[in-house]
User: What shape does this take?
Amino acid sequence: MAGPPPDPPPDPAPRATPGLAPGDFEALTQALKYCVLLHDARTFEILWANGAACDLLGWSVEELKPLKAPDMSKNAREYSRELGRRWLRHAVADGVSATEWCYRSKSGEEILTEAIAIRVDLPAGTVVMVQFRDIAEEKAVRRDLFRTESRLRTFLGGLAEGIVVLDDAGRVVFASESATRQLGEGLHGADFAGYCPDGPVPGREGRYRFAAPGAAPRWYAATCQYIGIESDLRGRMLLFYDISDRVREEEEHRRDTQRLDHLARYNAMGDMAMAIAHEVSQPLAAAYNFVEGARGRLAAGDEQVAWGLDNAVRQIDRARRILGSLRQYVGRLEQSEQLTDLNTIVRDCAYFIELRAQEHGVVTEFDLTAEPLPVRCENVLIGQVVMNLAFNAVEEMARRPVAERSVRITTRRAGDGDAELAVRDRGDGPPPGDRIFDGVFTAKENGSGIGLALSHRIITRHGGRIGVGPNTPRGAVFRFTLPRARTTG
Assistant: This one.
């Protein structure tokens, strides 16, 4: 019977690397900047240390050999002897095990290290070689970097300004949190041209409208510059912030300025009309006197001459009454707010309204309350509103057949006691849209739309309301109300 197989031949003795003697490896290990400790793989006692380890820990090799984990580790639970031995056992079982370990030097200094335990099978037995290096400074730098990054993220996240960086193709390679809040979550990686409804992507400082696809555009002030950070962030950087409210205020201020300029022109026209009425009234009065004198001398003469003079007198008298009414009306421009009857204002305007209506063949009807409608206002400004609404109605009716041309002006006491005036026509009905009082609507071929805007400004400044609605059976009703004034007595 054959006996048991022979034992395998023993491993050949390790051969020295050509050109290096076995003792040279210790010299190489001593030259390492990494610290090296050798532990017995069974007892975990220290067998040897290189010079870097001795220098860092402050002990010689002979002093290190008898030391245990509590003697050379930080006095904390995570660096206990049991955890240290478990770490070394993992290295023995798995071949390698890494951890962070806080050693304590001979002088008591605590040294945080990155440590790697490696099982090494030597001819004399298995050992665990621990390589470690001081990472305290590195950890401090890392903490500072993390803290700085965290602060930058908080700072950028709290900015009102949005920041995007675009590559050469115009795609977003970076977007700040504030930019994402303003333009949506799909910003990163998108073609920024899709966010610019008015044209190309901004290339210089200015005002632009941006919006996420499908959203309403808003106004932004933007600056643009090229940046290059390392090799992973290069391109055009846009910094922008929302100025929609400012643009809206500027637009409102511009419209207000236009309205004030228009009102100033109204006042200038009033001054001119005042001067004209003053200058023309004198020659008209003189002409009237001359005609009256000629009539007296021709009392017994040619009847046709007398008839012609009679008509001349009537026309001159009519012109004098027109100028008198104009002078009386314009002369109130300097008056301030006062207590008056809305019906009185309408009667003062009636003459001018009827003149305009006669030019277009429009019949005017005035239906005023028998009782007073006391209001506190600037008579001339409210009168201007009355005439604006009436003139608009007359010009609307001028386009209709002659039989349909009528405008009705009424006053009444509203349900809440306020004084109300309404102007009704039989035209095409209320204008479309809801911006007829902001200076953009006009139905006239050469109109500016400023009359309705000015009327709205005047009425609201007096604490009233102005609006438009349908007339029955056809046409539109423009009406305004003014707060009723308290009277005494």
